[in-house]
Amino acid sequence: MADLHIDDFYRDCAMIFLRLYATFPRKTVLYVDDICGPDTPDEFGLHSERHQSCFSAMTWMAEAGYINFTETIREEALDQAVLTQRGFLLLSSRSELELGIPEDEVDDGLPPSVMERSQTNVTQVRRALREGSSIIIQQVMHYLLDK
User: Fold this and answer.
1) Closest to 20 (Cα-Cα) out of 31, 9, 10, 8
2) Which of 1, 21, 31, 90 has its CA 20 to 30 A from that of 117?
3) 28-66 per-position pLDDT tens digit
4) Residue 128 pLDDT
5) Which residues pair with 73 in a beta bridge?
6) What b/e string do you get for 127-141 counting C-beta neighbours within 10 Å, with b at 16 or more?
C-alpha cells in the first residue's frame, strides 16, 4: 500500500524550503494554501486532512530546526517565517546526492561558479519538483532531512 501522506509530506517540505530560500534572509508569512493549494473547510469550518497535514509539516520543520517563525495565524499560516542557519546552509551546500544534471542543463562553456551553483541542494530540490516524480522528490528530501 502506498503511503501517499508521506509523498505529500516530502512535497510540502520541498515547497516550504523553496519558498523560504527565495525570501532569505527576510522573514515572511508562509501560507498553507501557497504550499498545498486552496482548501475548502467543511460545514463546521474544519480544514481538510490535506490542509492540516501541510500545516503540520510546517510546524514539524520548525521543531526539527529547519525553519523559525514567531507565531501561527490560526491554521492558515506561519508569521515571520525564515530559514534557520541549519536550513540555509543545508540548501546552499553542495549536494552529494547522485541524481546527476539533466542532459539539457549540461553546458561545458559555463563558468565554474555557475556549474558549482547547479550542484547545490536547493537546485536538486528545484529539479525534483520540476520533474514531478514522487520517487525523485522522496529521494532528495530524504537525503536532506537525513543530514
Assistant:
1) 31
2) 31
3) 999 999 999 988 877 777 888 899 999 999 999 999 999
4) 94
5) 77
6) bbbeeeebebbbbbb
CB within 8 Å of 78: residues ≥ 6 apart: 29, 30, 58, 59, 62, 67, 69, 71, 72
Chain mean position to CA 85: 15
Would you state the pLDDT for residue 87? 97
Q: Do the Cβ atoms of 124 and 96 come closer than 8 Å?
A: no
Question: Does the pLDDT value for residue 112 go beyond 80?
Answer: no
Is the alpha carbon torsion for 128, 136, 11, 91 positive or negative? negative
| Contact in structure between 123 and 115 (CB atoms under 8 Å) | no
Count of beta carbons in the 10 Å neighbourhood of residue 10 = 21
Q: Mean per-residue pLDDT for 98-106?
A: 55
10 Å CB burial of residue 54 (0-12, 13-18, 19+) is buried
Q: pTM of this prediction?
A: 0.86
